[in-house]
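Why run this: before we spend reagent on co-expression, it is cheaper to look at a predicted model of the complex and decide which construct boundaries make sense. The entries below are exactly what would go into the expression plan.
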Amino acid sequence: MWMSVEVNGHIYEREVTEHWTLLRFLREDLELTGTKDGCSAGECGACTVMLNGEAVNACMVLAAEADGATVETIEAEAVDGELSEIQAAFARNYAVQCGYCTAGMVMSVRELLRLNSKPTVAEIKEGIEGNLCRCTGYQQIIEAVLDVSGQINNGTRGGLKYV
Amino acid sequence: MSESTISSVATHVGDDVQRVDDAAKLTGGAMYASDLVFAGMLYAQVKRSPHARAKIVAINTSKAKNLPGVHAVLTGKELDYRIGLYVVDKDILAKDAVRHFGEAVAAVAAESLDIASRAVDLIDVEYEVFPPVLSQLDALDENSPLVHPDLGSYDYVKASFSPQPGTNIPNITKIRKGDVDAGFAEAKWIIEREYTNPSVQHVPLETHVAIVEWKAGDEVTIWSSAQSPFTLRDLFCRAFKLPHNKVRVVIPHVGGAFGGKAGIHLEPLLACLSRKAGGRPVKFQATREEEFSLLPCRSALTYRIKTGVGADGRITAQKLLMYWDSGAYADYAVNVTRASAYSAGGPYDIPNAWVDAYTIYTNKPWGTAYRGFGHVEFFWGLERHMELVAQVIGMDPLEFRKKNLLKPGSTTLTGERINEHTGNPLKCLEAAAKAINYGRLTPEEEDRQARTGRRIGKGIATLHKAPAMPSFTTTAAVIKMNSDGSVVVNIALTEIGQGTATVVAQMAADRLRFPVSRVKVAVERDTDKDPFDWQTVASKGLLLTGNAVIAACDDLLRQAYSDAAQVLRAQTVDLDHDGEKIFVKQRPEESVTFAALSIGYVYPNGNGIGGPLIGLGRYTAQGLTSLDKETGQGLPALDWTYGAHGVIAEVDPETGEYTVIKIASAFDVGKVINPGTMRGQCIGGMIQGLGTAQCESYIYDDQGHLLNPSLTDNKILTAKDLPEEIECIAVETPQLDGPFGARGVGEHPMISVAPALANAIHDATGAELTHMPVRFEDVWRAIHNKPPIDTWTTKAPAV
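The model came back. Tokens follow.
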């Protein structure tokens, strides 16, 4: 079908395969590969993007459902090469390792902070529960969210203890 | 330049330097193999066996071949190539026999993924199905069917492995130390138990992916999510009898690996499809379901431990029997067996030991390397056993462990003498115990217990591991100066999330006395352009590559000093340098900048001297030996990293439900290069370890069908599953031959988390857990003295 969608501020008009997901459309048609495919089944959250301002798993939405919609992906998070506050907090707190879950994680944190500007640790855990990460053990991602929401000063500066 | 002019003062090493790959990964700009697309690229799909053990009677591919858009269809019959790391036992596609559920029996390459999927559906395979061999203990029975009847004809690495033709055993590793009979004779107590682990999945967020192009003239290029480009190239070239200079392997960013991407996987199949499709690049990325059974897992283990203890609480002897479930192919499992055998007693002083470690074929997806390389599995049994032994002899488990820990002067199972520089397991154990207030409940914990009705328990566990690698493992680094005085480091150690690029940049910056921002570690790995590294595995990267990088920096400085000596009319011993320039010690105003020397120095009249500054550093593991095949004696360990975990758990004694209140872990890393990345890597491993401890496992039915190949049915921990408190502690006993005193810690955080958890549950409830994972129902059964259930093999569901 023919569709028109605004992605990261640009209007795209495309013929889209009916059974394609929004994830495939973004990655393969628009070549926006920052959004990752970790399971294609809504289990891992790596493909989280904003659809009309709300976080969704792009693998669980048909591309056709985005006709007329506004989509934002990780590619729009930094502006003119400057990391957003969320991204900078991730960097300060070592919240990135292999990076494959990172785009989806940043999107989910954005959604969380949109709904709750000062989330507790329990609320942060709830907010990123749908995003699997196999490298970090989540702790430094949680610290990054506390940092960007002004709840710890100057990151955790490593946080390692020595004896 | 004399050696003394280059100081090792750490100005960046030990600092919280931000990761150098953050910006690319945070903005979506980092390109992974799964993101790559090339002109003319085809997409591959494979036909997988629905049976665990079957004869392939016939395959009809004619409908698939005739589907428009299909460019190549392959079956095993057309491919006469075999691959294998240590035992060459695997066909690229199953030929006559299917050996595990999910095994590839045919493959296609087509213009789109959709066409390739349709083509695979059009392939008809006729099977004759046989009952599978599923338990590795059953597979030892002399009447068991053979998974590999031709084992005796396979090529294998003779220095290290011992296949037993006519059996299901591709390797036995033996260790013999002292006299176990005498040791047991002098024991006051002899305690014997059996412990088991199921197979589990690595679950990298990026599934295995590769693109291969085999052009005319045998020019092969492989883009892959593999961990080890040079080993991939070597195995590929051996399978196809191609010279190394015909095959190029490129590794872009990798989305997690954990050992599962260490060897060779689908690259040979994609190469054959590409060749058949006229040299067009062919891409394949595993689905999450395929990741569970088309690709390998971690081996299951049954571990029998018999321990003799003297009246003074010292271990007098240990008999250790390991039965490793290799699955259908030997792959890394034979080396997991070997590495586990020589570590099998843990960081304890055991005067008399006997280890028989068997690798055993079964009809299941095969086992490969997984973070910890066997140690997560056997430490489950070992550190549960230490707890149960302490209980039997009536000694506090911490005291029992402390009494038996390795100390300077002790010898390992292979006869290596430990000294004060090897690392300090006692300090790790004491730090972990202290962090959880081991041995007592705090007033807050007493209150909590009274309030909830749940019981709080505390458990500890030790760990150790040395890199499992060839005795002669080697690596190299090249450092090239740009004309502005910045540098680029080339290494073949891949960045798979562990932070290699960042710590290499820190170490190079320190050695050169440059700011970290002047050091770039090249992102892609490329066997045509990068210097050799054996593999990115085994927690050996920091030590070996770190030393090579230091040597490369010194080589570059040597060249720069030589050129500067000429420019400044000085001898190299008269010179020193800072981050910008080389200068005469006595008259620092006489100087020449690195930028001016970087690509050859130019005199005012236009004369040039010197040339591009390019440093080469090499490093080879020092003094290691093969192990004697009969006794296992020798020197296999580059370094030993020791560690310990403490866990506080809260258990409902009625239902067996529990939560983890705290995990605190300490590791003797020699020297912390980057506290932030070390803590991140450690917490990641601790939580991965907790996942395999609490819930992860492969579940098969009795016909060998894998029942839970998804993240819904094989859960890994989410953020909500984290302990309330996580603490990571560094111990720094310098490794004398480590870069800046450092040793690796990549795998260690995952080892022994499971027994620390079970020991805490045991402390709270008395539950004698011997099976992993520890689900609520397992705790309930153990509390109520019901035998453990092996739900990872269930009855086949009624169809």
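Chain A has two domains: 2-76, 85-148. Helices of chain A lie at 22-29, 85-92, 102-115, 121-127, 139-148. Bring this page to Monday's planning discussion.
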